[in-house]
Amino acid sequence: MWSTLSLKYLSIFADWRTIAMKKYLKYIPYYLVIFFFYWPLYELLSLLISDPYTLKGLYIYNIILFSPLVTFIVSLLYSYRFHFSLWWLLSIGLLYCFTIITFGEFILLYFLAYELFALLGLAAGVGIKHLFQRAKNKKIIQKP
User: Fold this and answer.
1) Residue from 72, 68, 49 nearest 120 by CA
2) What is the pLDDT of residue 142?
3) Residues with pLDDT less than 70, the chain
4) What per-residue confidence (pLDDT) applies to 139?
5) Could you give the angle at the alpha carbon of 58 between the alpha carbons of 53 and 61, nearest 5°?
6) pTM of the model
7) Could you give the residue ranges of the DSSP H alpha helices within the chain?
8) Which sequence ranges are marked TM in the entry (predicted)?
9) Is residue 70 a contact partner of residue 37, using CB atoms and an 8 Å limit?
10) How much is the pLDDT for 12?
11) Max alpha carbon distance in the chain (Å)?
């Protein structure tokens, strides 16, 4: 009796885990792009470039230009495809902590700037999705 019950609960747990994994796997590419710009890019640049001034310049370009731009674009795409999510903002903040590995310190100003760009990207994505839905609904109404 115990073995059949345990097998039943094990199969329910396995089914639940499969469903949960399928649910969250669609978010992984968005997180990986952000993660790449927050940590592995710095490591890759330090392996490929030996000139310290060029390396420092690329670090600064990434901090000031590329990472906020990528954060905005990926957040826009995320909210357009899925929805506005506070979990996404929290995740961006947690992923930013990987920059501590590279720089050895937590820079609050950049953290807040990246969160602001993520918030603006989420709002823009929701706005664009709303406009497209509105235009689509207008076409459907005018077609009869």
Assistant:
1) 72
2) 76
3) 1-21, 143-144
4) 79
5) 125
6) 0.80
7) 2-25, 28-38, 40-48, 52-61, 67-81, 86-96, 99-103, 108-142
8) 27-47, 59-78, 85-103, 109-132
9) yes
10) 58
11) 71
Q: Half-sphere exposure of residue 73, counting CA atoms within 13 Å on the CB side?
A: 9
| Confidence (pLDDT) at 3 | 58
- DSSP character at residue 105: S
Helix (H, G, I), strand (E, B) or coil at 144: coil
Contact 79, 126 (CB under 8 A): yes
Return the number of other C-beta atoms located less than 10 Å from residue 137's C-beta: 10
Residues in the chain: 144
> How far are the Cα atoms of 53, 99, 118 from residue 56, in angstroms, in the given order?
5, 15, 25
Q: How far is CA 77 from the centre of its chain?
A: 9
Checking phi first, is residue 104 left (phi over 0); if not, alpha (psi -120 to 50) or beta? left
Nearest to 37 by CA among 67, 72, 78, 58: 67
